[in-house]
Amino acid sequence: MNQLDIAKFGGTSVANYESMASCVKVVTANPHTRLVVVSACAGVTNILVEIASGALNRAEVTDRIAKLREIHQQITAQLAPEVQAKCNDHLEEHLNEIKNLAAEAMMGRSDELTDRIVCHGELLSSYLIVEVFKKMGFAAEFFDVRRIMRTDSEFGCAKPLVEVLGFLTQQHLLPLLDKEPIIVTQGFIGANTEGMTTTLGRGGSDYSAALLGEACNAATISIWTDVPGVYTTDPRLVPHAMPIEELTYLEAAEMATFGAKILHPSTLVPAVRRNIPVFVGSSKEPEKGGTWVKPETKTYPSFRAVALRKNQTLIVLVSPKMVGASGFLANVFSIFAKYGKSVDLVSTSEVSIAVTLDAGSNTSGIPTLSEEMLNELRQFCHVKVENKLSLVAIIGNNMSSTAGLTTKAFDALKPYAVRMICYGASNHNLCFLLNEDEAVPALVALHQHLLEHEE
Ligand code: ASP
Ligand code: MG
């Protein structure tokens, strides 16, 4: 088993029958790929989140359920008649369940109910891709990941209980991986110790794959998506973006944290714990190769990539009492900690602190900046909250120890109003906070200045 590869396919990779067939080809081309982890078909989680919001009326729910039927029936339509009938029956069972849960959501939404609704996306895609494997002549078996993916009860962004997962994997999953059929399971979803369904937060399937990789002690984790690897920036925003052959864990983690959509930010944590190399490639064009994320790389360029993260909230806290006083930062951070808010950037002056927070990756998509927390902060300082900001980050190596690096970045950003800068804490990044509408042009300019020319 020590050569084991785990292959994770994202929503666009399992969007329809043809895409699923490409996944099957990718999996079966590598004899070491024994475990397959899938996301919901493209668009499905968004629809389910909408249903779970409780904000739709009866007619709208019916419309969304019809849409879900259509997405999945496109796949079942390609299967042999008797398999098709079985799959359509299975689909109807799920849709019926979703309909019942939607009625519950209309009476009042909750994160717990949201997870019970959204899990159907991954359950359906994994069920159907097993049939695509079979149709193409390969033995494959469905495995409900909730049997092993134990999490806490923080619905919508549950934390895995890594030790329990390891133990349950040994008991229930590893014995299956030695046998013939390829095992297909779900990303994103899990269950708490009471057996209630949880989710790891939007985009969490990558994280699931990495956690399973760790639990199985896999040799490699392959994240198959719709782009051939990690690029120097998002190619949809900057057409000159170039593929990157290899990245260190540190660089990739910075990229994920700062908004490169390619990997869920937590993905690398389990891989790093076990030193498992992670491959990122396109399931539609596997021949194009991809990016390896590894402990070490051949080169360590100053500038490796630029990334953009939207939906940033800036909180400026001003307290005249801060002059010469101690404990103000500790107070502020203990309040953030109490409300479970993780602070990204921090900048301080004599009487004020500016911090940025992310609007959050909770499955429900509802920002979690509570009035209660703000009131607590207001008790000892003036609080100003600003939204509609974006973070642009430069990712590279030896950034805070190489002379002259910042000049190039500041030159590129000359036309833009930079709201906040963070530099010095990490050798791997330099971050700028900008107004939302200036962020993309700033990203383009940075890419051009730092990555399209020689270093
Ligand atoms: N289906 C989930 C989502 O859309 C998880 C994932 O795709 O990784 O967020
Ligand atoms: Mg995804």
TrEMBL record:
It catalyses: L-aspartate + ATP = 4-phospho-L-aspartate + ADP. Keywords: Amino-acid biosynthesis, ATP-binding, Kinase, Nucleotide-binding, Transferase. GO terms for cellular component: cytosol. ATP binds at residues 225-226, 231, 236. The gene is lysC. It comes from Candidatus Anaerobiospirillum merdipullorum. Residues 392-449 form the Aspartokinase ACT domain. This is Aspartokinase. One of its GO terms (molecular function) is ATP binding. Residues 6-281 form the Aspartate/glutamate/uridylate kinase domain. Its EC number is 2.7.2.4. Signal peptide: none annotated. Belongs to the aspartokinase family. GO terms for biological process: homoserine biosynthetic process; lysine biosynthetic process via diaminopimelate. It comes from the Bacteria. Gene3D superfamilies: 3.30.70.260, Acetylglutamate kinase-like (3.40.1160.10), Aspartokinase, catalytic domain (1.20.120.1320). Pathway: Amino-acid biosynthesis; L-threonine biosynthesis; L-threonine from L-aspartate: step 1/5; Amino-acid biosynthesis; L-lysine biosynthesis via DAP pathway; (S)-tetrahydrodipicolinate from L-aspartate: step 1/4; Amino-acid biosynthesis; L-methionine biosynthesis via de novo pathway; L-homoserine from L-aspartate: step 1/3. PROSITE patterns: ASPARTOKINASE (PS00324).
